[in-house]
Structures are given as C-alpha cells and as structure tokens.
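[job 0412] stage=complex_fold ligand=NAP status=START
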Amino acid sequence: MADLEGKVIIVTGASDGIGRKTALLLAKKGAIVVLAARRKEILARILKKLTGGPQKHLFIATDISKEGDVKRLVEEVIKKYGRIDILINNAAISYVGRVKDMDIEKAEDVININLLGTIRVTHGILPHMIEQKSGHIINISSVLGKGAAPYRSLYCASKYGMEGFMESLRLEVGKYNIKVSMIRPPSVRTNFSKKIELDSDIKHHELTNFKVISVAKVILDVIKRPRREVNMGIFAKGFIFLNIAFPALFDAIVQER
Ligand SMILES: NC(=O)c1ccc[n+]([C@@H]2O[C@H](COP(=O)([O-])OP(=O)(O)OC[C@H]3O[C@@H](n4cnc5c(N)ncnc54)[C@H](OP(=O)(O)O)[C@@H]3O)[C@@H](O)[C@H]2O)c1
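[job 0412] stage=complex_fold status=DONE, emitting structure tokens
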C-alpha cells in the first residue's frame, strides 16, 4: 500500500463533485493537495477544510482551457513543493444534444476543456515527473469513453480522445516509472448534468446513481494499487463489454428510436 503522506497531488476540477470529495479524502490520508479549478472563492473555502490546514495545501485558480493558466499552475506547484507526484485529470464539462443541432462554439468549448485541457495539464507536469523518474497520471474518463450513447457526441469525442492520448502516453513514459490510469465511472450524483441546457425533446436520464465518495475511494485505491483501468460497477463493465464483444447488438439497444 503506497503511503500518501507528503505526496504532492494536483486535482483538476477540485471545486465540485468528484474532484472536491477526492481532494478532501486525499488530504485526510496525509497528501499535500493542490486544488485547481476556475472558481477561486469556492477553492479558497475548500482549502480551509483540508486536513492539515491551509498552509500545507494550495489552491490555484486555473482554467485548463487557457495555456497561461496551466503554465502558472505548474510553476507555482514546483516553486512551493519542488515536485508533482500525482496528477488527477478530473475537470470536464458535459454536453447533451443531437449532432444535427450542435452549436459549433459549444463543440469547441467541450473539446478545449475536456480534451485539450487535459492534454495541456499533462504536458505541463510531464517534464517534472520525467526528471523525478516517478509519477502517476490518473484520468477520470467515463463509461462513455469506451461506448457511445446518442446525444453525447461531443462528450464521447472528448473522452475517447483523452483515452487515446493517454494510451499512447503510457507507452512512452513507462520507462520513467510514470504510471497512467483510466477510471470510468457510470453516472455519479453531482451537479455535472445539471449545468447543461437540454433541448426540450431530449430526455436525459441517468442509469446509475453512484455517490462521489465511491469514485473518490476508487481513485485512492488506484493510487495505492496502480492499474491501467477501472470500469466502475456492473453497469459500466456490462456496457463496455457489450460494445466491444457484440457491437451490432449494442447499437440496436442504445440507438435513438
Ligand atoms: N457526474 C457523472 O455522472 C460523471 C460520470 C462519469 C464521469 N464523470 C467525469 O468525472 C469528472 C468530474 O465530474 P463531476 O461529476 O464531479 O462534475 P462537476 O461536479 O460538474 O465538477 C466539474 C469540475 O470541473 C471543473 N471545471 C470545469 N471546467 C473547467 C475548466 N475550464 N478549467 C478548470 N476546471 C474546470 C469545475 O470547476 P469550475 O467550474 O470552478 O472551473 C468543477 O470543479 C469529469 O471528468 C466527468 O466527465 C462524471
């Protein structure tokens, strides 16, 4: 079991949902947590709640769609702690809508945050992990990163893209003792889906209802026992298996009617 005491861990998307809960749990286990997200006031409030006190940890208001913000995030972490042990790529936005009605500006936002944002942060921390000859990059993908659903084209594009990027990265950095893991939760009880506007005729229902703490515990477990991937729960496992093993049946079940 890896000891988290003193490990420097960046959590993107730490102001809400899975990222917030994970940050609190990591601090409880002794880690030094760097909170990154756009909403500064919320991050400041979470910082005060982290075990070990605000002096131990750090929050850095960061929009991962902005190269300058990401550069500053990495610089400040290295300045204060001199190393980055773990990166948790968690920040993302949702999108639900048909491709035919898609707003291309919205498409740019989703890709710029979920995919390019993740790439930016990973690219920024990588030289430090390579120099250290150690590190762990943990990515919060989704069940929709390995099997699609109607109305989720942009979200799937961003998560499939992230998965491909990380698979390739894993093959480059193993020699530096850097691990890359993918976690695929099904629907989790957060504000994620509440932040989107739905076309009136699209019914968006969540098929599972995981608690954030379940995902945070899986993240902790992956830190302790690094694995390539975790498909969370029976629904995610079944959904992904069906898509890979029986693609025609998968399409018949999942398609819009
Ligand atoms: N909830 C689910 O059902 C579910 C299922 C599977 C996978 N996931 C994945 O789990 C991860 C976390 O989702 P969640 O449910 O916890 O969502 P959430 O509660 O909406 O939290 C998303 C976080 O991302 C941050 N964020 C958004 N845009 C950002 C940007 N440009 N720069 C930096 N931070 C940004 C938000 O903070 P600010 O607004 O303050 O920037 C927030 O802290 C996501 O990768 C999501 O795809 C979620």
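The domain at 8-254 is CATH 3.40.50.720 (Rossmann fold).
[job 0412] exit 0
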